[in-house]
Amino acid sequence: MRSGKLPVSGKTIMLLCLASFLGGTIFASRKWTQPDSEANTDLVLPTMSNHDKLSTISRECDHKRKLAETNSGYIMGEVMKTHQAIQSLDKSISTLEMELAIARTRQKVTQNTKENRASNQSIPNKAFMVIGINTAFSSRKRRDSLRETWMPKGDKLRKLEKEKGIVIRFVIGHSATQGVLDRAIDSEEAQYKDFLRLDHIEGYHELSTKTRLYFSKVISIWDADFYVKVDDDVHLNLGMLAVTLAKYKSRPRVYIGCMKSGPVLSQKGLKYHEPEYLKFGEEGNKYFRHATGQIYAISRDLAGYISMNSGILHRYANEDVSLGSWLIGLEVEHVDERSMCCGTPPECEWKAKGGNMCVASFDWSCSGVCNSVERMKHVHHSCGESDSALWNPL
User: What does 34-80 look like in DSSP terms, one character per residue?
Assistant: First the structure.
């Protein structure tokens, strides 16, 4: 009996081979299609990713812009707070520096006081105000016109110092030759005892130096609340001046006077020519605000500052400008007191009748009372306060 394998026909073999070929083709087609698809995906994805990134960046920029716009008020507020804090710090430093200078000045005054007491010299009591009347060797008649009108003399002058704390002195230096002019002042001083002599050579172009020396001198002698400078051709009501200054007694750094801002004169030959006019900008510019030189007052701390820094304070041609420049960079209250620059009659007379007594009167055209020797009595009669006004309580 033959073996059990069934015979396979050639047709069947052909069909099986064809089926296997077709199956393999289909399988291969699927396998190659998938990588192509994945490859295409790989090519597309980076392009899509860049687009997404740009979109994201754009959205973030818009978001930040909106936040900036929304918070701009807050940011500006923070900037302003920072700026104000810096300003406050600057002011604090300036105040501390000035207080240090004042402390040194007071220490120096105390030391001088002890030395004077040790040498049996009498020390004046603490003063309310010291009034320095700027005068010259040629102004004897002007000085007499003041002694005959608003300035007490003799026992009344001493009483004013003792009871009211008001010290008044004519301020003058020395002549270049130390000769007859100085002896004339010595004789006048022996008669009236109302001079303050400075270690200074007199001269019109040396007024800034004289002013600096004046404040340095008086603060070393009198511990006053205020120090006043006035010219010898100005009419002054002492009682009104005392009342006016008393209003600012509690303020540590005040500069009181008729504030102005006049032109800087560059032309040579003019009375108030400023040789350093280029420091104030272009020709035709004006000075910074400062008190007119006929009369002004400063508080103790400011006088102490001038005394301590005397050697490095710059002096301009005009004395009032110099003082203003010394104080303009400090924490100082500028008080524009218009009663300190009234005109002579009829202006000051009208104000007196209306109950607005002037502190000081003069003519702007003359930078003082015009023809003061002849007119001071008339001005005093028309615009002067009563004798009792000076002795009323402050």
Answer: HHHHHHHHHHHHHHHHHHHHHHHHHHHHHHHHHHHHHHHHHHHHHHH
Name the β-bridge partners of 254. 333
Q: What sign for the dihedral angle of Cα 339, 345, 349, 350? A: negative
* Contacts (Cβ under 8 Å, ≥6 apart) of 376: 145, 146, 148, 149, 233, 235, 369
Cβ neighbour number for residue 125 with a 10 Å cutoff:
11
In a domain, 16, yes or no: no
Neighbours of 39 (CB within 10 A): 10
Average pLDDT, whole number, for the chain? 83
Q: At what angle do helices 300-308 and 319-328 cross, to 10 degrees?
A: 100
- CA 225 – CA 301 distance, rounded (Å): 9
Which residue blocks in the chain are alpha helix, DSSP H? Answer: 10-118, 140-147, 155-159, 180-192, 207-221, 238-246, 300-308, 319-328, 347-353, 372-383
Counting the structural domains of the chain, the total is 1
Query: Which range is least confidently modeled, 59-68, 134-143, 252-261, 269-278?
Result: 59-68
* CATH of residue 320: 3.90.550
Its domain, for residue 351, covers 125-383
Q: Are the beta carbons of 147 and 192 closer than 8 angstroms?
A: yes
> How many CB atoms within 10 Å of residue 286?
12
Residue 190 lies in a domain: yes
Report residue 216 as tokens. 């340095």
- Whether residue 22 lies inside any domain: the answer is no
328-374 pLDDT, tens digit per residue, is: 999 999 999 999 999 999 999 999 999 999 999 999 999 999 999 99
88 lies in some domain: no
Please tell me the pTM assigned to this model. 0.72
What is the per-residue pLDDT across 161-176, written as a single tens digit (0 to 9) for each? 999 999 999 999 999 8
Residue 63 dihedral angles phi and psi, to the nearest 5°: -65, -45
